[in-house]
Amino acid sequence: MIRTFEEKDLDRIMELWLFTNLSAHEFVKSEYWKNNFDAVKAMMPEAEIYVYEENEEIQGFIGVMDHYIAGIFVSEQYQSKGIGKKLLDYVKDKNNKLSLSVYEKNERAIHFYLREQFTFLKKHIDADTGEMEWEMNWRRRKL
Fold this sequence. Notes:
Elements: E1 2-4, H1 10-24, H2 30-43, E2 48-54, E3 57-65, E4 68-74, H3 83-94, E5 97-103, H4 107-115, E6 119-125, E7 132-139
Antiparallel strand pairs: 1-2, 2-3, 3-4, 5-7, 6-7
Helix pairs in contact: 1-2
């Protein structure tokens, strides 16, 4: 079940945020994620967040700000089971356009977004990590 974020969800989604970033971005120093934890936690309530809940436990979430997908995070044991796609489809239903940035070395994520009809716009270096990022976007097709 997908539902809107509630304040009581904050600790669980931050746990998912940290663990998923550490495992998906081994090429970024772990201190980067740990040092940004408190700042991200403070910003979470300002974002549009939807959580995927199964068996009364949050297994994933997606965060959006002004049509920008800040990230899709899925618990490790639930990855590759369609949760990320369900979260993305849920947000697509609410928007006509979306954009995001994804690290070039995160090939799994790039393939996922390309499969979900996102298109490559340009590359740039993330000033905070020194890593190359792809900017991508999606637009609803007109019938």
